Amino acid sequence: MKKKIYEGKAKVIYKGKDPNTLIQYFKDDATAFNNKKKGVIPGKGVINNFISELLMTRLTDINIPNHFIKRLNMREQLIRKLEIIAIEVVVRNIATGSLVKRLGIEEGKILSRPIIEFYLKDDKLNDPIISEEHIIAFEWATHNELEEIISLSARINDFLTGYFYSQKIRLVDFKLEFGRLWENHDCTIMLADEISPDNCRLWDMQTNEKLDKDRFRQDLGKVDKAYKEVAYRLGVLSEKEFKKVLKNDF
Length: 250
Ligand code: TMP
Ligand code: ASP
Fold this sequence. Notes:
The chain is an alpha+beta fold. The protein has a domain at 83-204: D-amino Acid Aminotransferase, Chain A, domain 1. The chain is 32% helix and 32% strand. The protein contains 7 helices and 15 strands. It has a 5-stranded antiparallel beta sheet. Helix 1 runs parallel beside helix 6 (223-234). The longest helix has 23 residues, at 143-165. The chain is globular. Aspartic acid (ASP) binds at residues 9, 31-35, 213, 217.
């Protein structure tokens, strides 16, 4: 029996065999609006496991350090154990979501430059938006760590924008989480969590159809089909594996 360390809304974390590793299990559960809306998206965990594997691997290829080691099976991946920084980093290319609500910016406006925002990862406080000043003053991260997080986020955005663009998908915005890998006294900032339609907004280039969790948040229907569409376009699951996902046969 694997030892469960933490259960989040969409994933479960288990102890790995090696003390420097963890196992990340992807659930089909979906939540929105800080857990007020709950549901299940059939096959989501499998699809997110495969999509995140692909994108983390591509990021490793361009030297963006991240926690991914290898995929273990349909729903689990082996990851490095990091000291998670309790900040959600949101990168925006097109105005939508809370940016539009908070600042009255026109929906769908292409931003003159990408915007990086920070939110405190604290469900009790409803993940409030914070500034760099808060992060430094309250020592949630050091100045150097924050510079590194911003630089990595910008590189990740440039890379992923192009990657999705080649599959005729607009990367509208997304959320990242980072952690510290300690090796003796050296610390490396690494990308953690997942990159999937759960934490990205992805719009079809031609139709602007939403291919992400907004379909669940906004009750637009065909949620699992949208996730599958992204996986198909990225080429991460074979026809045969997809049939299994649909039949819940894994
Ligand atoms: P927002 O417009 O609601 O602030 O969301 C910005 C991006 O962050 C969007 O791609 C969805 C993602 N996100 C999460 O991954 N988790 C969250 O809890 C929230 C609020 C947003
Ligand atoms: N995952 C978040 C929650 O359940 C919010 C979201 O993604 O919309 O609260």
